[in-house]
Amino acid sequence: MFKNYMMTAIRNLLRYKQYTLINILGLAVGLAACLLILLYVNFELSYDRWIPNNDRVMRVETLTYDRDGNFNNNDESIPPVAAPIFAEQVEGIEQFSRLLGDNVAIAVDGNAYDQEITVADPGVFDLMGINLLEGDAATALSSPDAIVLSVSDARRIFGEQSPLGRVVKINGEHSLKVTGVMPDWPKASDLEVHAFIPGTTPVFDHMPWRFTSWGSFSGPTYVRLAEGISPEQVAQEMNALAVRVGPSNRFQDRINDGMKPQYEFHLTKAVDAHLKSDIRGGDGRGSIANLITAGVIAFLILAIAVINVANLGTMLAMKRVREVAIRKALGAEGRHLMMQILVESVALTFLSMLIGVAMAEASLPLFSDLMNRDLTSTQIYGPAMLATLIGCTTLVGIICGLYPALVAVRFRPVDYLAGMKPKLGSRFRNVLIVLQFAATIGLLTTCLVVFMQAEYAKSKDAGFDSAQLVEISGIARPIVLRREAALREAFMRIEGVEAAAASHGMPGHDYNNWNGVHLANGVSKDMRRFAMSEELLPLLGVKPIAGRLFDKNRPSDSRTGTDQGASGAIILNDIAARELGFVNPEDAIGKDVSTWDDFHSTIIGVVENLRTRSARSEPSATYYWIGPHEFRHVVLKVKREGMAETLSEVDRVWREFFPDLPISRQFVDDAFAEYYDTERRQGWLLLFSAGVMVVIAVMGLYGLAALATERRSKEIGIRKVLGARSHNIVSLLLWQFSTPVLIANLIAWPIAWWSLSSWLESFVDRINLSPLPFLFAGLGVLLVAWITIIGHTLKVAHSNPIKALRYE
Q1: Percent of the chain residues topping a pLDDT of 70
Q2: Which of 155, 365, 471, 532 is most deeply packed, by most CB within 10 A?
């Protein structure tokens, strides 16, 4: 029996080649897109699940509160000084490691390389389940001069030779010995690790506060809890211990004043950190909301493909009215007819699945690049995925064929013999078409708004002119910092360099150094401090809104000390001036303020906020000061003419100063663009999905238009005989297929408006939602629908009515 079903199915599929091809390609495209999106979703859900005992591995995070006890933010790290104290004295912590990322220059055999390194504790290999390819994990980080490289970085630096025991020079000053080679760090991780050095390393001796200050946040700390220990219990003990051993001004004094301590520690499972942890500076991370959106989009794409097949199957059933009537008249039971149609549908779906998998594999590299994720086709061919794929394909095939099968079963032979034609559920079919176009229009509108917001955020006024600015990183290295002033002077001698300055922070490098600022009247506020040289604000084109800028000819402006966080003169941004209680910016000029160690400064100016962070981040109250010991970047303004030659000269000057250090430079505009990687990926996913939906909808509409015009050929013939002109026929058919699109707009627009308004609220700087993207998406889909059906329409409109009425 099954063989007979299959033979009949093959005959019917070959009989209607055009519609079979439309169904197969539409469903294949839908399945391929759905498979790609699900691979992305699966990759996002796999973050840190490779860690052994990952149900007990936690990231320790910090809730921070300001001087008034108000919640400030949730930080993904804790002060590194606290981690070994907690590990030693809090019961239930089985293993721990700090993971503090940084960038260094590594030199060997006369060649210099940029190297990402991570300062870690010796227990990191046990905690993360890392087995070294070379070296002993138990002793690899026991010596202060040790370094463990990933296998890719070892090959990049040493080629195919074994690096074990080789000596490398770090930052031109420190000699470290390679004590191990580890596998490349898994891609499904929020951490990007290329090399480990121990916390006892001399590389960061110039920053002792990094490991000793309770105000330092340099990177995450992970702990593994003993079995049966709850994260809440451990967090409670951590907070109680911090009150006892931490600085009293951050903990006990605040509690005595009836406020929350400055820090409250809590634990987040490592496997949840990527998607569920609400942290500061989380741009570029995953989002559970985005993942749910991706899953919904995958479902919509598949649903639209299924609707196409079901609609075309139902319309094709009309062409098989005679076959069904004869089968029933000869005694065929309803279940046999239903089984026949379902077998055809499942066979078509499996053929589409094979083509869809091939499409998905062919487009996977491009999709991976768009989503900035390391997706591989090996995930498709795993036993679990294959079983899921086969099961879902069978289910989709049954769903596609179920409605046409029910229509065929309900059709009575006597109706056909009486000359009656089945209605074939035209209302339900029209509802499906409307929903199909509503989903397409809604997604296309969302795609347009996401790209508009990303472009707006990138081009938003940063408070300074970022054009032609080049930032050079790595200035904080002691060997560089000692010669920073001479380096800038050398850059200024290059013909294409218009100006040079130094700063603590720039876009793409989010440092958070905070300081308490106190007025003589008792007003105190925590503010972000931003060190710079006198030349930076003029270089950026910043004008004061009150007072003046720093002046190199006034030595009192730059008065400071290596252990201070302010200079003799400071400049406030407009937010800081308001928070200190100044109604007008002019009121702040000349006021005396003090910072730590009772260091006194004079406010000499107020400027607008300089935006060096994402548009999602609330601007912070900030004061600017002259602090050479905190410089991390040199900023150059270069001429447009001969820019390539200018940058080449910049590289040459750097090599002359620091032959063992590679230069790390970037355009400021490119750094701003990196902040919107999440929005970029989201936009490309939406654009990809909207494109797939349009393709599927167009293919389905093409098939439906062909069947509908064929079905109405006699009606059109009569209209032409009665005097209808070709343009009347074209208008009639275009209106028939335009109506579902117009109704779909009325459904899609309010839903998209509501969801996009909610999404835009997550941005501090955002576009005003206007009707333009909605109109563009709606009219665009309508235009595509017209182009799709115009061929059939013109063909019928110009056909000879005699051919259609010949049977009369």
Answers
A1: 82
A2: 532
**At 283, is the pLDDT very low, low, confident or very high (cuts 50, 70, 90)?**
very low
pLDDT band of 284, cuts 50, 70, 90: very low
727-770 pLDDT, tens digit each:
777 777 778 778 888 899 999 999 999 988 887 887 766 788 88
Instruction: Tell me how far CA of residue 270 lies from CA of 45, 89, 263, 520, in angstroms.
Output: 12, 22, 21, 46
Q: What is the pLDDT of residues 197-245, one digit of tens each?
A: 999 999 988 888 888 889 888 889 999 999 999 999 999 999 999 999 9
Query: Between 510 and 120, whose confidence is greater?
Result: 120
From the centroid of its chain, how far is CA 337?
A: 49
| Contact predicate 576/545, CB 8 Å | no
Distances in Å between the alpha carbon of 634 and those of 531, 594, 641? 12, 28, 21
**DSSP letters along 474-531, please?**
-TTSHHHHTTHHHHHHHHHTSTTEEEEEEES-BTTB----EEEEEETTS-EEEEEEEE
What residues are paired with 342 via a beta bridge?
none
Helix (H, G, I), strand (E, B) or coil at 54: coil
If one counts every other C-beta atom within 10 angstroms of the C-beta of residue 124, the result is 25
**403-424: pLDDT as tens digits:** 777 766 666 665 555 555 555 5
Of 683, 757, 687, 618, the C-alpha closest to 455 is 683
**514-519/524-531 β-pairing:** antiparallel
Of how many residues is the chain composed? 808
pLDDT on residue 280: 45
Q: For residue range 617-675, what is the model confidence (pLDDT) as tens digits?
A: 667 889 999 999 889 999 999 998 888 899 999 999 999 999 888 888 888 777 666 65
Beta strands at 174-182 and 146-150: parallel, antiparallel or unpaired? parallel
Helices (H) and strands (E) in the chain, counts: 26, 22
| CB-count exposure of residue 493 (10 Å: 0-12, 13-18, 19+) | exposed
Mean pLDDT of the chain: 83
Interatomic CA distance for residues 375 and 321, integer angstroms = 47
Within 10 angstroms of residue 463's Cβ, the number of other Cβ atoms is 18
Q: Which residues contact 504 (CB under 8 A, 6 or more apart)?
A: 511, 513, 529, 530, 531, 532, 627, 630, 631, 632, 633
CA distance 78 to 95: 16
Whole-Å CA distances, 287 to 18, 258, 444, 525: 42, 36, 21, 33
Beta-strand pair 633-638/592-594: unpaired
Cβ contacts of residue 437 below 8 Å, gap of 6+?
Answer: 697, 740, 741, 744, 748, 781, 785
What is the token pair recorded at 119? 């300062």
- This model's pTM is above 0.70: yes
β-strands 600-607, 569-573 pairing: parallel
DSSP label at 606? E
Using the structure block, give the residue that is written with the tokens 């008792």: 522
More confident residue, 13 or 200: 200
Range ranked top by mean pLDDT from 158-167, 332-341, 776-785: 158-167
Q: Is 556 exposed, middle or buried (0-12, 13-18, 19+ CB in 10 A)?
A: exposed
Structure tokens of 420? Answer: 């009656």
The residue among 136, 134, 139 whose CA lies nearest residue 154 is 134
- ∠ CA 363-359-381 to the nearest 5 degrees? 95
Could you give the CA distance from residue 490 to residue 654 in angstroms, rounded to a whole number? Answer: 9
Bridge partners of 119, per DSSP, are: 100, 197
Cα 540 off chain centre by: 29
Secondary structure (DSSP) of 518-559: EETTS-EEEEEEEEB-TTHHHHTT---SEE----TT-GGGG-
